[in-house]
Amino acid sequence: MVVGSTDEISVTPKTDYDRASELKAFDDTKAGVKGLVDAGVTMIPRIFYQPPDEFEKASALDNTKFSIPVIDLEGLFKDTAIRHGIIDRVREASATCGFFQVINHGIPVSVLEDVKNGIHRFYELDTEVKKEFYTRDPMKAVVYNSNFDLYSAPATNWRDTFICYMAPNPPSQEDLPVGCRDILLEYSKLVMKLGILLFELLSEALGLNPDHLKEMGCAEGLIALGHFYPACPEPELTLGTSKHSDNDFLTLLLQDHIGGLQVLYKNKWIDVPPVPGALVVNIGDVLQLISNDRFVSVEHRVLANRVGPRVSMASFFCTGVLPNSKLYGPIKELLSEDNPPKYRETSMADYVTYFNAKGLDGTSALPHFMI
Question: Fewest C-beta atoms under 10 Å: which of 37, 95, 139, 171?
Fold first, then answer.
């Protein structure tokens, strides 16, 4: 699924466009993008227009089809040779494209389906009910809004999101979003277990003790983001999510059957097609930082689509803006005279605060932390 090329886009400049006022008017509805769709819009507001250069087509590389690796975790604990093979594939994917999918990961398909259904249930609630959760205060137990960077990003994305801090201090059940409270708690426990396993594999892929990344605190925080991408009447003018890399250690993404996720690999946009029962795994900025570029946090985006709504659940291993003085820098065991540290130490809160203030502006936050 690919949006049109740049020569198919024609945006007529308007001299009376007051972006700040239109952003505030949209935010004040507290109804998000879904509110626009429910109102029957046939043309998207100008705040959603993306720069035309964001619409390069996904394409084959050297006439061969590159695809994001799908790694089968079956037999991980039963056979040493299988485990070593899995670690080799994790290492290769993490060092090259920064993305892979996992199957036979231990989370039942029924749970994955319940998560997607729970996201749908929340967003289908009456607007007045959802408004109770609508906030731009990142310290709330549950944050629901449209575009965390609404007032700083150059273009608004065709997407609504709720965010819940599930670890280290999960909210009480009654504070979680209506319609998906039980499944959020169950799913987050299973994701935490899988995440710890993946950090073991990633540690071994770096030549470290299996517990190294866990002991550094990479699995201390878990943030659940329930994304809702309504059907878009003009998908050629906007994006579901602008180009960005993730401000965490690791992301586990559950996407539905609609698709639209793309990864920027060797300056080409590559589709990440939904695989039934799979979870998408991608390296975050802070894991690239502590691995001193051994692993790469790769930019990705989500296309807008006439078909929808698309839903996804992104699980970020990160403590976000929660107060935490722990500093992260390149792992000393990975450094040498020939491989000196490329980044300065930073706390997770400082990294995320800088990232959030910058917004999804099409640039990476990592260079800001380089030595």
Answer: 139
